C-alpha cells in the first residue's frame, strides 16, 4: 500500500466503562447482573462500548492509507516511546487528551470525540469523520496548533512528573498533609488537605472550583462581591501557574499565610515533605500515576521546559 507519509500515526485509546466492568466482574453476564441489580440501564454501557470501538476501527481504517498506524492503550502511555515525528491522535474524552499530552515532547496531538451526542469536550474539536483531512493538513503544515503550558514537579532524588491541568501534592488518604512550603523569601510549616497547582488549561477545572468556593464564602460572610473568578478562565499558554492550599489549618506549629499565589520561572514553589508515609504527587487526576512524597523528599514546582501542541 502506497502511503502519503512515512510518519507514524499513534492512536491512543482508553478502556470503556463496559470493559472496566468486565475486568472487575470477569464476565459480561456478571457485569450486567450487577448494574441491573443496582437499578441502572445496562444497555447504555453496551451502546457506549459499541460506538467507541466503531469510532476507533473507523479511524484506523481511514488512516492506514495515510501512514503507519499503531494503537496504544492509555495504560501503556507512561512507558511508550514516541518518535520525534509521530502524529498522535487521542480518541476519548478530555481527560485522555490531557493525560496523553504530558508524555509528549514536540509531537502534535489531535483530540477526537468518538461520540458527540454523549460527550462535550474543550479538547475534542474533531470527530472521526474529520480525522483523515485533519491529518493531511497537519502533514502539510496547514493546520493551526495551540501551545499549552505545563507544570513540572522535580524531586531532590531526580524524579520528575508533568501536568497538563493540575498537580496534587499531599496525602493519598484524607488525613492531614504536613510539609514546609517556600515561595521566594517566605516559608512556613503547614497542615492542610494538600496543595493544588494549576495550569492555564487546568484553570477551568480544579482552580475554577477553588475560586468559586472562595468567592461564595467571602460573599456569604461579608455580603460583598469580590469577583476574581475570571482567573478561572486563563489562556492555555500563560507563563505562570497558580497554587492553592486546600483547607490550611492554623496551629502553634502550622501557618496559613502562604495559601495562594503564582509560580513563575523566577519564583518556583518549593515543598519539603514531613509525611512519614502515603505522601504523593500525582497529575491530571490520575492517582495511579504518582511519585512518592514522603519525609525528606523536596519537590520544586516550576513551569515545564516543554509545551504541549494541540491541533485545533
Structural features, described:
There is one protein chain. The protein is an alpha+beta fold. It has helices at residues 17-25, 28-37, 42-63, 94-101, 128-139, 206-222; strands at residues 8-13, 68-73, 87-91, 108-112, 145-155, 160-163, 166-171, 177-183, 186-192, 195-198, 241-245, 260-263, 269-273, 279-283, 290-292, 298-311. The protein folds into two domains: 8-143, 3-Layer(aba) Sandwich (Rossmann fold); 150-304, Sandwich (Tumour Suppressor Smad4), CATH 2.60.200. The strands form two sheets. Strands 1, 2, 3, 4, 5, 6, 8, 9, 13 and 16 form a ten-stranded mixed sheet that branches. Strands 12-11-10-7-14-15 form a six-stranded antiparallel sheet, with helices on one face. A hairpin with a 2-residue loop joins strand 8 (177-183) and strand 9. Helix 3 runs parallel beside helix 5. The mean pLDDT is 93.
Amino acid at each position: 500500500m502506497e502511503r502519503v507519509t512515512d510518519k507514524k500515526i499513534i492512536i491512543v485509546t482508553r478502556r470503556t466503562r463496559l470493559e472496566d466492568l468486565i475486568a472487575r466482574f470477569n464476565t459480561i453476564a456478571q457485569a450486567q447482573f450487577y448494574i441491573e441489580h443496582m437499578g441502572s440501564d445496562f444497555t447504555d454501557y453496551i451502546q457506549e462500548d459499541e460506538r467507541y470501538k466503531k469510532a476507533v476501527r473507523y479511524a484506523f481504517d481511514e488512516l492506514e492509507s495515510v501512514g503507519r498506524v499503531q494503537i496504544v492503550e492509555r495504560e501503556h502511555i507512561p512507558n511508550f516511546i514516541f518518535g520525534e515525528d509521530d502524529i498522535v491522535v487521542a480518541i476519548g474524552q478530555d481527560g485522555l487528551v490531557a493525560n496523553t499530552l504530558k508524555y509528549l515532547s514536540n509531537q502534535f496531538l489531535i483530540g477526537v470525540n468518538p461520540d458527540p451526542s454523549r460527550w462535550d469536550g474543550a479538547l475534542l474539536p474533531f470527530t472521526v469523520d474529520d480525522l483523515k483531512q485533519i491529518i493531511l493538513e497537519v502533514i502539510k503544515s496547514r493546520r493551526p496548533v495551540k501551545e499549552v503550558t505545563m507544570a513540572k514537579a522535580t524531586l531532590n532524588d531526580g524524579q520528575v512528573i508533568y501536568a497538563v491541568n493540575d498537580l496534587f501534592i499531599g496525602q493519598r488518604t484524607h488525613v492531614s498533609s504536613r510539609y514546609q512550603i517556600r515561595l521566594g523569601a517566605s516559608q512556613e510549616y503547614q497542615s492542610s488537605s494538600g496543595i493544588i497547582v494549576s495550569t492555564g488549561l487546568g484553570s477551568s477545572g480544579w482552580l475554577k472550583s477553588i475560586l468559586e468556593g472562595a468567592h461564595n464564602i467571602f460573599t456569604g460572610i461579608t455580603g460583598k462581591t469580590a469577583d476574581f473568578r475570571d482567573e478561572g478562565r486563563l489562556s492555555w499558554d500563560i507563563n505562570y501557574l497558580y497554587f492553592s492550599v486546600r483547607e490550611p489549618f492554623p496551629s502553634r506549629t502550622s501557618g496559613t499565610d502562604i495559601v495562594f499565589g503564582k509560580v513563575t520561572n523566577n519564583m518556583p514553589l518549593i515543598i519539603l515533605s514531613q509525611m512519614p508515609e502515603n505522601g504523593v504527587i500525582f497529575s491530571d487526576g490520575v492517582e495511579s500515576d504518582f511519585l512518592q512524597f514522603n519525609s525528606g523528599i523536596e519537590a520544586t514546582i516550576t513551569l515545564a521546559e516543554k509545551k504541549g501542541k494541540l491541533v485545533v
